[in-house]
Amino acid sequence: MARKRTVSRKKQTAPGFTTTPFKTPDLPDYVVAELRYESPVAFTTSSFVAPAAAENEANSLNNVLARFDIATVRSQFGQRIADVRNRIELAEALPAEPSARVLKAKGADAAFRQSGFVQIVPKKGADAKKLADALNRAKPVWQAYVAPRPVPAGLTGSSVGTRLFEPGQGYLYSAPDGIGAADVWGLAGAKGRSVTICDIEGAWNTRHEDLPAGISLIGGTMISDLGWRNHGTAVLGEMVSTPNSKGCVGISHEAKAVVHSAVINGVFNLAQALTNAAAQLKAGDVILIELQATGPNGKYVAMQYWSDVFSAIVAATAKGITVVEAAGNGNENFDLPIFNNTGLQKDSGAIIVGAGIPPANFLDFDGSGGFGSAYQNIGVPRSRIWFSNYGKIVNVQGWGFHVTTLGYGDLQGDASENKWYSMRFSGTSSASPIVTGAVACIQGRAKAKNGAPLTPAKVRSILMSTGTAQVAGPGVPLAQRIGPQPNLPKAMLSV
Amino acid sequence: MIPAVLPPKDLTGRTIDLKLKPGWWYDEARGVFLNADGESFVPRSLRRNARIVYKVPDLARASPQALSDAEKDLRSYLQVILPTSHGTKALVKQVQSWPAIEEAHLAPQISLPTAAAAQRLPGRAGKKR
């Protein structure tokens, strides 16, 4: 079995520009000798050959080989021995050190030039340097050198370790582009310390390399489905991925995360999941509802449309637990008469999150996997993204596209899904964890500064009054309300 | 294209959500709906292996005096869980006619509010599916 050579380069030079240890197979060192054009010398797998008139030249090279234990001699360009022999006739016709013009005139093509490159592999790698030196002293050799041992020229990647993707997490950045999470991390508690976030959906990969240990399933049954697992992993990644030199950094990475599946008794029961989660949390904690369902118009709507879910949210917020809820991706107007007297026109106490256009408001090279054509513009930043639901009850927005986080593997793939990363998490799914992380930062700060968390109503009020305003775009007027994007530095002034 | 990720089929289409009329409750052990006036109703039309369960059983068992209005409301919700999705829609109309029931409907068709997981690059993680 081939041994591996490990080369360590652990120094971090700048965010995202790190090199970690990599391994290359223990390939033997070898020598590349370039014969002079005019030397009528060819080679077999063990020695050099030449016509009688040039026998001395071949001998000089064979004498060098005889001083070393040689494994093989072959063409550096993979030419066959018979083809290499063809070089002799043309070489004999060339003057010493022929010019390019002469070479062209004599018909010395690329194949002829390449035929003079000989790969000589000594059995002992340590002999390579001495062999090259000796060959350089032989008359038929133009130059000889130990072949370079290539190393990966790029930054570290999936084959050698995970890169740092934080520079791609624009939602962490200062307003107006992001929510300014990184701007407030220096404040005591503002990384979400002593706050627990419970994500309610269906599946997660809690073994992902960039998630903290100990994320527990506190109720329900995990769905065995890769799509759902990627989704839950991506959601967690936005909020609590661990801060280190690789992967992502969660908005509220000092918060504790737990998860609750909405599947109970083999079917969905979100009301029970919410009630059970609320029973295990305390005032100041956060519940995130990462689900939507088909409403009366056949479009996806927020889960609080259903009265049992609405009551469960009311009950949870009454305990001081902030509930963050995805508005859903139905391009639905919650203010339509059909929703009169339903949970879509009443206040459950939840923070309902719409999806806005991110600052990078275009699709990528392949149309982002089916969203549209490559590099297609998708709208004005912080305007409503076309599929987001909207209405008076939608309180705030988050990025609805281009969210870099864990899972899926479109940003970094690997044999293990524990190393998958995405730069395309989307929808009110990607928007809601941004707001949830912001809530955890605010509550962590409130606990550290004031000794007590804020009420859910106060948290929502702060986010709405201090956020970066929604923007109108073509076909998406401000009347299609999704609310502002959180701005944590401003919000913290009200904590 | 409306972004959504649907759940596995075995999780959908076989649940009916229902809400009790005020004053009614369901005795899970006996499989009977009861009310304070002594009326009762046995849902005999349910197929074998169907179950009726409270959506939030802890609250259903709790003393209402200790509950908030929202929690009291949650006591009145149940699910009819069927072994398969076959015939569920037809059963909804039956359930709506039960004397103990204020409202009944197919359980919401839940999905994830994001694009389908088709955004992998060829040759990377996408090959593994």
Describe the fold and architecture:
Chain A contains 14 helices and 23 strands. Chain A is α/β, with parallel strands linked by helices and 495 residues long. Chain A folds into three domains: 39 residues, no CATH class; 119 residues, 2-Layer Sandwich (Alpha-Beta Plaits), CATH 3.30.70; 327 residues, Peptidase S8/S53 domain (Rossmann fold, 3-Layer(aba) Sandwich), CATH 3.40.50.200. In chain A, a hairpin with a 5-residue loop joins strand 17 and strand 18. In chain A, helix 8 packs parallel to helix 12 and helix 9 packs parallel to helix 10. Helices cover 16% and strands 26% of the residues of chain B. Chain B has one domain. In chain B, strand 2 and strand 3 form a beta hairpin. Classes of the chains: A alpha/beta (495), B alpha+beta (129). Chains A and B meet through helix 8, strand 15, helix 9, strand 17 and helix 10 of A and strand 1, helix 1, helix 2, strand 6 and strand 8 of B. Strand 17 of chain A pairs antiparallel with strand 8 of chain B.
Q: How would you summarize this macromolecular structure in one to three sentences?
A:
The complex is a heterodimer of chains A (495) and B (129). Chain A has helices spanning 55-66, 81-85, 87-92, 100-105, 110-115, 128-136, 181-184, 226-240, 270-280, 307-318, 367-370, 427-450, 456-466, 488-492, and strands at residues 4-7, 12-14, 17-18, 22-25, 31-35, 42-43, 48-49, 70-75, 117-122, 141-146, 196-201, 216-217, 256-261, 263-264, 267-268, 286-289, 292-294, 300-302, 322-326, 351-356, 396-399, 403-406, 421-425.
